[in-house]
Amino acid sequence: MSEITLKEMSRKPDALICGARLCAGCDETIVVRQVMKATRGPTIVTSATGCLEVSTSIFPYTSWEVPWIHCAFENVAAVASGIEATIKAMQKKKEGPLAKYPNVDVISFAGDGGTYDIGFQALSGAIERGHDFTYVLLDNEAYMNTGIQRSGGTPFGASTTTSPAGKIILGKRETKKPIDDIIIAHGTPYVATINSAWPLDVMKKARKAIEVDGPTFLHSLAPCSRGWRFPPEKTVEIGRLATQTCVFPLFECKQEKGRPVYELSAPSLAIAKRPETKKPIEAYLEQQGRFRHFFRPTRNEAHLKELQESIDIRWQILCEKAGV
Amino acid sequence: MSERKRGWKTLPKGAVPYKSSKDYQTGDWGVAKPIIDRTRCTKCTLCHFFCPEGAITVREDGYTEVNYDYCKGCGVCANECPVKCIKMELKK
Amino acid sequence: MVANQKMMGLNGDEASAYATKQVDPDVVAAYPITPQTIIVEKYSEYVADGLVGSEFVAVESEHSALSACVGASAAGARAFTATAANGLALMWEILYIAAGLRQPIVMAVANRSLGGPINIHNDHSDAMGARDSGWIQLFCENSQEVYDMSVEAWRIAEHPDVQMPVMVNFDGFTISHTMENVYTLEDADVKKFVGKRVYMKTEGPKGEVEFRLDPDNPISIGPLDLQDFYFEHKVQQMEAMKYTLKTIKAVDKEFEKITGRKLEYVYPYKMEDAEVAVVGLGSAMGTVREVVDELRAEGVKAGMIKMRLFRPFPEEDLKNAIGKVPVLGVMEKAYSIGGPGAPLFEEVKTALYDSPKRPLVADYINGLGGKDTSPEMIRGVFKSLQKIKERGAVLEPVSYVGVRE
Questions:
Q1: Domains of chain A by range and CATH?
Q2: By CB distance 3.0 to 4.6 Å, which of A13, A145, C13, C371 could disulfide with A51?
Q3: What does the alpha-carbon distance between residue C212 and residue A140 come to, in Å, rounded to a whole number?
Q4: Residue B52 to residue A22, Cβ atoms within 8 A
């Protein structure tokens, strides 16, 4: 099994190959390519309905060079549960086509729709049952595949087609569901946030998630050039800004003797140690058309203040949890 | 692609896709393409990891190479290169 | 050579669980719902006592139950689930997907009425809602048939020319909770009959492969179809389902030899010279048979047909069984609100439409929500059929039996 270094991983063939029909500059495939570099052996991938799934499997083409299944929108965790149970059963019985492998890893990819909202039940159930699989949330903060509608993962104030910035109501009024907290509260053995702007961090965390026994959860921010309204070449840059402004801090959380133990990852740890390097959220917001109404026709100080404060509080709480 | 599409009698059972997307070249999507200046490239390989398509591969000699058959011209590689040795050039 | 069989006292749920235990599928993923609960409970006991090698996935909903089965079956497992009524309704989306993705899952359904209002008792409205989905549907009259079908279903589903999920239906409470004498096969004979799962052959980007999630021969299952391919894929399913009319007979013939019990798609009773007859599904047909005997003793030329196979619809076998009877009543525990009749009536009439000589057909909706269908009521139906025969016309194509006004 190869070591996780940029050099080693750059030589590993991709599990998700070229020719897929996602938008140019889509972050989902950047993250998926990075995560799939970290596989350690036979791997089965399950996908929820969403941008990634539809664009990588337009019949008669497929972009997946690993066994892959898409069933429906809200059940990727349930499908993964069934596959994982099959692997367990066959290995226990020592009978069946998957019995011969020492391990077969199961990775599920889902968007914020398939995780925060419609897919939440299946995910919660799968974690409660303790299935050994890795769930990767590709969070582009709206139901992008169906046309940019708001989801439980859409941040406060963002304009989407079902929470538009209109004359009376200015974007989404509700806050982003704290999915990491919820998954950690389930006692999930390993939870981490990842960002395609730091590929080595992504790959190391993905490898850890695969190796840890039981359900593991990787939450990736997935900037969407269409839905967030920025030019495609800035995809990774916007993702980086999200972490640099502490909108999307990078951390890991393991369970040790029934307690969640948090650890900030290098990019966020650096900010925690030198708070003056924390960028104000405006640096992140003003790059995106979905927050345009925060700045034009006039600066919406109330919205900016509310969002900055909520980000600051969450960042502070995270730092306390991580003992920094 | 001019081949006649298969009918229900010859399509694979179970609706299994029978073509790799390698056969679907997305290289004509973009209006620009990345040109790597290898005299300034430091072989950091980050462009390989940042390409959404997997169209940038790492060669034996450690330099990267763009497969223009699939490059969609998104410009992420050029935007992210730490030494800015990749330039997006408009296609003719 | 008929195999050695042991008589056991089992209710329908227990028969289903016991048969499944003998098959020992790799994955059982099920969510409890009355009146199927005994199946999941019994199976959990088998698992806890180490009597089966199955992984029992205590899913958090029926939708997840069938989803887990789809994942398991795609990964190469034998997968089993059980449900009823609103549970089946909750899985509705996945029923179509399981069939469309050709997963040979076996599901026991303890037929129960669909809410609302909520009712936990027997009728067939749940199974009827699934009749377009692409599942093979068998209906059982008693616990013996539940046991037999629960074993045979695997070979029907996994037949290389079929590869479709199978639903074994039996009346909730009436069969599921009523203990009957059931002849059960020995474990070894069940294992020998079902054998190892055979995988369908299909074609991936690298050529011919087995249709499963195979790390050595990766394929993608569940693609996006645009307008150019969806219809073709559905026709593949429709044509394969037509073909199963042949293959199920072949499996039936093989299974008959082992159990010694005859298997047919439809079971005509005293139809050769019948002047009035009833056709239907499920346990009520047992009562109808008794009433037919009583009527015959009274000089009425009554007959009846019990249908075992509903999907695929056994048109030829049914028409042969109907024969020359002049008046046919469909007794069914289902409805199609706003439709020209209830489901079975519509299908029987359609099957008969092109026949040069066909009976007058009337629909008798009965037993919804578990309302008892008594011998008295059945006599009433036969009286109504006799009136139709005398009149030579059907004045009331659809009527309700046993409902207070």
A1: 6-321 (3.40.50.970)
A2: A145
A3: 31
A4: yes
Of the candidates B6, B19, B74, the beta carbon closest to that of A233 is on: B74
Record the tokens describing residue A13, joined without a space: 């063939």
Kindly determine whether residue B29 and residue A18, on different chains, have CB atoms separated by under 8 Å.
no
Interface probe with C: pick from B5, B13, B21, B22, most Cβ of C within 10 Å: B13
Cβ contact C100–B19 (<8 Å): no
CA-CA distances (angstroms) from residue A81 to A77, A86, A215, A321, C59?
Answer: 6, 9, 10, 31, 9
Distance from CA of A136 to the nearest CA of B (A): 17
User: Which among A109, C47, C101 has a CA at the least distance from the CA of B15?
Assistant: C101
Which tokens sit at B37? 């200046």
Contacts of B29 in chain A (CB under 8 A): 24
Each domain of chain C, given as residue ranges in start order, spans 5-201+224-259, 266-400
Query: What pTM was computed for the model?
Result: 0.96
3-class secondary-structure state, position A273: helix
Give the architecture (CATH level 2) of C5-201+224-259: 3-Layer(aba) Sandwich (3.40)
